Amino acid sequence: MSAQAGTLGGVAHGRHQDFYDWEFAKKVWFEMNTWEAEEKEWAKYAADFDLWMLEWKKNNQTAKKLLASYPPEKRKNIERAYDIQMAWDTWYDGLYWPWFNNYRGISQVSPRLDKIKALKSFDQRRAEANALNASSGPCNPQKFLHECGPWPDWRSPEMKAEERKLEELRAGRLKGH
Questions:
Q1: Which domain of life does the protein's organism represent (predicted)?
Q2: pLDDT of res. 6
Q3: Domain residue spans in the chain?
Q4: Which sign does the torsion angle of CA 43, 48, 53, 56 carry?
Q5: Which site from 32, 64, 72, 102 is most exposed, i.e. has the minimal number of CB atoms within 10 Å?
Q6: Phi, psi dihedral angles at 82 (to 5 degrees)
C-alpha cells in the first residue's frame, strides 16, 4: 500500500507543527520527489503505520496517545510514515488534485475551444513552477514548505494513465474543431 490522499483527514497544507520531523518531511518533498523514491521510502515504514492507522481511523487523539507508548523504533517508523503521508496529502490536495480536477473538467465538458487549447499537462505545469522556483529572482514559495524548491512528482502509473486518457479526449475535441 502506498500513501493515499486524505488518509490523515484531508489536511490540505502541512505546517511545521503538523509533522513529527520537519527536516525529514522536507527531505521527502525535495529529495524523494519521484513516485518510485517515495514508494521505496514508504515501504520501510508502512507495516507499522498501517496497523496504527486502524486506531487513527477510530479516534486520532487516542491513536496519538497510543503512539507515545510504543517502543522507540516502532514509534519512529509510524512517525516517518505519517510525515510521508502528510507530505503526500499536501501534494495531492494542494497541487495535484486542483490541477487534475480543472484539466478533467475542461477536457470533458468545456464548450470553449480557447480553454481547451490553453490546458497544460501536469508535466508542463510542474516544469513551469520548477523553472520559476529555480530562477535567480524571487521564487514562488511552495504551499507545502513556504520555501522555494521543486514540486515532487508523486503520480502513480495509474494516475499517469488517467492523464493520458484525458489528453486523448482533449486532442480529439481539438481535432473536431
A1: Bacteria
A2: 56
A3: 34-175
A4: negative
A5: 72
A6: -60, -45
* Residues of the chain below pLDDT 70: 1-14, 106-116, 133-148, 176-177
Note whether 174 and 117 are within 8 A (CB): yes
Structure confidence at residue 1 (pLDDT): 42
Spatial contact of 11 and 18, defined as CB atoms under 8 Å apart: yes
The answer to whether 82 and 20 are in contact (CB under 8 A) is yes
**Dist. CA 50–CA 27, nearest whole Å:** 22
Task: Report the C-alpha gap between 65 and 60 in whole angstroms.
Answer: 9
User: Grid coordinates in use for 123?
Assistant: 508535466
C-alpha 25/C-alpha 82 separation (Å) is: 10
The set of long-range contacts for 104-107, using a CB threshold of 8 Å and a minimum separation of 24, is 104/166, 107/166, 107/167, 107/169, 107/170, 107/173
